Amino acid sequence: MKTFDALARRLVHYGIEPLFGLMGDANMQFIASYIDEHGGRYIGSTHEAGAVGMADGYARATGTVGVATVTHGPGTTNTLTALTEAVRAGTPLVLMTSSTPSSTPNHIQNIDLARLAEPTGSAFRRPLRAQDVPDELGRALAQARSESRPVVLDIPVEFHGVEIEDTVAAPREAPVVETDLDPELLDAALGVIASARRPLVIAGRGAVESDGHEAITAFANLIGAAVATTVAARGFFSGHELNLGICGNLAHSEGLTAVLDSDCVIAFGASLNSYTTDSGSLFEGKPVVHIDRDADHLNRYHQAEVGLCGDAAAVATAITQVLISEEIEFASNRAGLAEKLRNRVPTDDFVEASGPDTVDMRSAMLRLSKRLPSNRAVVTDAGRFLRSVWRYIDVPHPRHSAVTHNFGSIGLGIGCATGVSVAAPDLVTFAFVGDGGGMMSLTEFNTSVRYGLPLVLVVINDGSYGAEYSKLQGFNADPRHSLVQWPEFSDLGVALGGNAVTVRSLEEIDKLDESTWAPENLPLLLEIKVDPSIDYYA
Q: Which value, to the nearest 10 degrees, does the dihedral of the CA atoms of residues 57, 74, 94, 92 take?
C-alpha cells in the first residue's frame, strides 16, 4: 500500500480516535484514507492552534496520547503557542506535520521544522525512508507517553505516495512504573510525617496522572491531614471534609489559615511553584516531603526536607503500608476544621460590586455554580477572570478540569475545551474565557456546532484586556487604552451556529436552570457582562 494509507491504517491500529487536525497539502490524503478506508473519526478545527489545543484537552481528559495533524509551513508555525502550552502542561501529544518536498528547495512554505520545534520543548522525529513511516508513528506515540510531552513527527510529503509494505506491529505500551525508594530517604520522610500534628497533603497533576486518588486519600486519612490541590489537580479531593481547595495565592480565607497553620507538607506530583507556595511564604518553617516521578522536578521551585522520586500513587501506598505495619500513632490535631469549612461563607471574601448593567464576576461565579449540572467538565482560558472561576466553580473530577495558562497565553481555552468535550460526551463542558481570549479563537466555537458537542462557552466580558486594565492602573496610566468595543458576543454565537444568552444582572443568572444546558440547546454561548474597573484581585 501507499505510505499515506499505511499511516492511516496504523493510526486506527494504535487506537488513535479521534484524530484532530486541519487539512492541507501535507496531510489530506491520509486524513481521507483514515476516514473513508479505515473508519476513523476526524475532528476538523478552524485553526491549527485549535487542533493542537483539542488534542491537548483530549489527552488531559482521558490520560491517553492526543494526536493532531497539520500541514507544512504556516500550518506548523500556527501551532507553536498551543504546542508550548502542551509541553508545559506535561501533555502526551503527537503533532503530525510534514516538511516540504526536497525536490523544491524554494517552496513557498519551506521552513526548518526541527528548529521550530526545539524552543517549544517538544521532541522531534523524522523517518529517513517511506518504509519507516508506520513504525516511526508507533515510536512517536511511545515517546510522547513515556516522556509526558508532545512529539512533533515530520513525515516528508514526498513519502506519502511511495509504495511500501506495512507489517503491523503491536501497539507500544508505556513502561511499567516501578517504585524502588531509597531506604534512608524513606526513613527521613517517615520521621517528618510521624511527628506532624497538623499535616497538609497536596495533590498536583502528577497525582492525577498516576490515578492516585484512592492511595493518596487513604494516606491523608491515616495521618489526619488536611488536603489541598494545585490548580492543575482541582477536584482531586472533591467531597473530602478537610478539603481546603486550591493551595497558594488563590486559597480562600479558611483554606489559607489552615495552610499557614500546618506544620508539615507532603506533596504528591505537584511542582510547588511560586503560585502554590505564594513565593515560598506559605511553607516557611515547615518541613516538606516532595514526591514526584521526575527527579528533575524535585526542588526545582522549592527546597524540600525530603525528596522521593517515584509514582505518586505507588509512593503513597508504600508509605501507608510502612506506617500501618509499624503501628505508628498520629497526634494530628485538626479539631474543628471540618466544621469551619462547612460553615464557610464565600461572600465574606469580597465586597459585592455589581452595577446597573453589569455583574461582579465573583458573585456571578458563585450564583452560576449553583445552576450548573453536576455532570460537568470545566476548562479555563487565561485572564483576569481566573481567580473568580477557580475559587467559586467546583470541578467534580480532576480529569474533567483543564487550564491553559501554563505559557501565560490567552486564546487557547476554546480549543482545549473542544477536546475535553469530545473526550467526555456524557458531560457538559464549560469553557470559561475572557472577551480578549475568546475573540482570538471564537471561530473554534463553530467546531463544537459542526460536531454537535455538549459545550457551553462562558465569555466573561469586561470590554477590555482585563489584566492590562489593572496593570495600567497600577502604573498610574490611563486604563482606557485597554478598552475594546466588541460586537455583541451573543450575536456572534448565533452567527456561528449556536445558541446564546446574555447576562447583565445576578437575577438573570438565577433564571438559568436545567433546561439551559439541555442537549437541544447546546452548543451555547453564555455572555456575562462585567465592569472592568472593579478590583477583582482584592
A: -40
pLDDT of residue 253: 85
Whole-angstrom CA distances from 348 to 198, 362, 507 are: 25, 11, 20
Lowest-pLDDT choice from 41-45, 175-179, 240-244, 455-459:
175-179
Higher pLDDT, 495 or 466: 495
Which residues are within 8 A (CB) of 470 and not within 5 positions of it... i.e. 6 or more apart?
Answer: 384, 479, 535, 536, 537
Cβ proximity of 219 and 340 under 8 Å = no
Q: State the average pLDDT for the chain.
A: 92
CA 64 to chain centre: 13
Q: Kindly state the percentage of the chain with pLDDT values over 70.
A: 97
Three-state secondary structure readout of 440-507: HCHHHHHHHHHCCCCEEEEEEECCECHHHHHHHHHCCCCHHHHECCCCCHHHHHHHCCCEEEEECCHH
Give the three-state DSSP class for 313. helix
Q: What is the DSSP string of 134-193?
A: HHHHHHHHHHHHHHTSEEEEE--GGGTT-B----PPPPPPPPPP-----HHHHHHHHHHH
Neighbouring C-beta atoms of residue 323, cutoff 10 Å: 18
Is the pLDDT reported for residue 500 higher than 90? yes
Question: Distance between CA 483 and CA 466 in Å, rounded?
Answer: 8
Longest dimension (CA), the chain: 74
The C-alpha atoms of residue 519 and residue 500 are separated, in whole angstroms, by: 14
pLDDT-derived band at 350, boundaries 50, 70, 90: confident
Q: What is the DSSP letter of 2?
A: B
Which strands make up the sheet holding 243-246, listed edge to edge? 243-246, 226-229, 199-203, 264-268, 288-292, 306-309
Would you mind telling me the total number of residues written for the chain in this entry?
538
CA 525 to chain centre: 21
Strands 264-268 and 243-246: unpaired
Higher pLDDT, residue 294 or 422 = 422
